[in-house]
Amino acid sequence: MTTTDLVEQLVEHKTLGAAPREELVWLASHGSLRQLDAGAVLTAKGAQVEGLFVLLSGRIAMSVDRGAGPHKIMEWREGDVTGMLPYSRLVSPPGDSVAQEPSVVLAVHRDHFSAMIHECYEITSILVHSMLDRARTFTSSALHDEKLISLGKLSAGLAHELNNPASAIERGAVLIGDRLEDSARASRALAATGLTSSQLAAVDALREACTASRGHSARSPIEEAEREEAISDWLADHGLDAAIAESFADTAVTIEALDLLAGAVDGPALAVALRWAAAGCSIRGIASEVQDAAIRISGLVTAIKGFTHMDQASVAEPVDLIQGLRNTIAVIRSKARAKSVNVVVDVEPELPRVRGFAGELNQIWANLIDNALDAVPDSGRVEVLAHRERERVAVRVIDNGTGIPTQIVGRIFDPFFTTKPVGLGTGLGLDIVHRLVRHNGGEIAVESQPGRTEFRVVLPLAEVDARGGTI
After folding, report:
1. Cβ(59)–Cβ(75) under 8 Å?
2. Distance between CA atoms of 176 and 355, rounded to whole angstroms?
3. Cβ pair 17, 10 in contact under 8 A
4. Going by C-beta distance under 8 Å and a sequence separation of 6 or more, which residues neighbour residue 285?
5. What whole-number distance in Å separates Cα of residue 7 and Cα of residue 12?
6. Are 66 and 170 in the same domain?
7. Are residues 174 and 235 in the same domain?
8. More confident residue, 429 or 37
9. Does 74 reside within a domain?
């Protein structure tokens, strides 16, 4: 292709065609044509970008692996420009740019940029606008992908948290069905004994003790085992089935109460009465466990709604950090338990509210705490501290991991920079944290040494009066 043919093709180019012809002639004379077969790599991840690429025909796409396999984030077709653009800080791309079909590009080496900026004002202006559009598109894609990754982590943690109470409810529903059958048989047997009113009152008194099963102070496993053994021994001493001791163990039923019943009812009727009371105690215990599990699920749903703030306002408003930190820890607690990490929360009493976006603040805490959990070893420690500092509130997330090497501390907030293994980190979490902190009018800093890393976020109070107090 001659220079004249190339210039004519540039005149028809969607992006650069509006530039003066003399500038297009300069571009054609300082560039070189490159033919790319399908699958050929134009720019490789991590390698220095050679310069500007003007796509004359074909299609090129960039893919990035953010932990779930290669994902296309940008695509350029005939009439587009890619590669390094004037005034761009791009050094190396975050992913490979690969020809999706046979393509032709005009490559202008970066060494010519200074002259191009001086000689080609209109082309430079067009390319700067293209750079801004590309940055917006790329940032939007990156934020979207990071949100999806965060949502995946959140969903996994929530599913894990919901599994235990949901299983308890399912198990309890099955057990209640069985215990109701036992209770029905015991009720028929009790009716056949012909107990007097005073004897039935003694039986009812024992069974009603089950209603106080959640009122007694918590017992340790050893205390619970000793109590069950004592009741079992009492039943054996009276020639009764010791298997029902388990039904009474976690209730307020005492040995004295059993003695009172044995004083009012004896013989076979005592065995029937105890089976009937045990069946009732068992049903109430299972029902109580089902209720606790349902309350746990309800609490998790409340926490996840508070964490995401689905009904968040479009303007900054006073935010309760205490509740936000609790909700955040509630939805990621399963990860801490999996590593046996001790998460300590120390919040100043009556901590004043800050001004910001609650959902964004919760995302900040989630990213910082999640990173801390990744950094600490099994059985490690993570501290979340919050206190007032004059007209601001400081939240600190501290872990006892290996620390961040001094030579990279200054880069941890850069997009796509990560120290995690491939597939475990996107390099976007701390970049997004940095953006969100600034969007909420705050500041973030980090200090790290082996055995202690601290991220410190400072946020403005919701409102401050002339005397320095919150309103």
Report:
1. yes
2. 49
3. yes
4. 210, 213, 247, 250, 251
5. 9
6. no
7. yes
8. 37
9. yes
My answer on whether 111 and 160 are in the same domain is no
In this structure, how many other beta carbons lie within 10 angstroms of the beta carbon of residue 159? 11
pLDDT for the residue numbered 381:
93
Q: Which residue range(s) make up the domain with 185? A: 155-299
pLDDT at residue 468, as a whole number:
45
Q: Which tokens in the block code for residue 68? A: 């779930």
- What's the pLDDT at 457? 95
In the three-class reduction of DSSP (H, G, I as helix; E, B as strand; rest coil), residue 306 is classed as helix
CATH assignment at residue 415: 3.30.565.10
User: Closest by alpha carbon to 392, among 312, 315, 316, 468?
Assistant: 468
Asked whether the predicted pLDDT for residue 131 surpasses 90, the reply is no
Predicted TM-score (pTM) of the model is 0.47
At which of 119, 145, 170 does a domain end? 119
Tokens of 260: 């009172």
pLDDT for position 221:
67
Q: What is the pLDDT of residue 421?
A: 46
User: What percent of the chain has pLDDT above 70?
Assistant: 82
- Gap between the Cα atoms of 393 and 389, Å rounded: 6
Residues 287, 199 share a domain: yes
pLDDT at 48 over 90: no
Q: Are 43 and 98 in contact (CB under 8 A)?
A: no
Cα 464-396-323 angle, rounded to 5 deg = 65
CB atoms within 10 A of CB 466: 5
Does 136 reside within a domain? no
Q: Are residues 160 and 245 in the same domain?
A: yes
Q: Are residues 440 and 379 in the same domain?
A: yes
Domain boundary among 253, 273, 299: 299
Tens digits of per-residue pLDDT, 363-409?
889 889 988 998 899 999 999 999 999 889 999 999 999 888 888 87
Q: Are residue 200 and residue 267 in the same domain, yes or no?
A: yes
Q: In what order do the strands lie in the sheet with 381-389?
A: 342-347, 381-389, 392-399, 452-460, 443-449
Q: What CATH number corresponds to the domain at position 58?
A: 2.60.120.10
Same domain? For 333 and 291 the reply is no
| Residues 333, 322: Cα–Cα separation, whole Å | 16
Q: What whole-number distance in Å separates Cα of residue 107 and Cα of residue 114?
A: 15
Provide the number of structural domains found in the chain.
3
Share of the chain above pLDDT 90, in %: 24
Q: 431-467: per-residue pLDDT in tens?
A: 778 888 988 899 999 999 999 999 999 999 987 533 3
Average pLDDT over residues 191-206: 86
